[in-house]
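INFO batch 0412 | record 1 of 1 | parsing
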Amino acid sequence: MKKFGWKSDERGAVNPFLIGMIIFALLAIGLGGAFFWAFSQMNDYKNNSDQKVAVAVAAAKTEQQKQLQAQFNEDYKKPFLTFQSSSDFGSVSFQYPRTWSQYIAKNSDSLQVYFYPVAVPPIDVKTPFALRVTVTNQDYASVLNNYQSLVKSGKLSATTLTIGKTDTFAGYQGTRIDGQFSATINGSVAIFQIRTTTLQIFTDSSDYLNDFNNTILPSLKFQP
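INFO prediction complete | emitting tokens
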């Protein structure tokens, strides 16, 4: 007995009309979601625009203040002061920030000088000084050998160093060592031979590397 209405398809074929309806429904859902997201973003911006602008302005001012403070700190270090050792210790001289203080520990056969912003703290091997300068009777090869185990372990890296080179001067030849010297000391040392003595210039913290690289070493002079 025949029924009126839709004819059933007993061949298992997919109904194109049904597929079209499904696709249309999915597109409608996707477009609706996109519209809702755009509307919510617009509504959020409308309701919170003033607050967002205020936050952005505050962040910009904070960043600008940091940059200005950093520039002021650098400018305040000038004019640089000059350190000069006696001829007994190679007439070592270099420039350093005027905001640093120095303490000289000197005896008959060695020189040790410590530098730190404002005031030099008590001398301690664990204290990361802005700058340390030593001139000792230990020969150059022996001083380098003191760092070999840390270089081999990868905690330190060693490179050759030439500073003060001009058209008429070959420059001061030495070795630079960088890395983790101890649990509290992470910095650099420049090592030079001065006749039968050895000059070492340390910075014990990366906080002072800019001064070490751009002020101390470029201005370094001594009598080799």
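INFO post-check: DSSP finds four helices and nine strands in the chain.
INFO record closed
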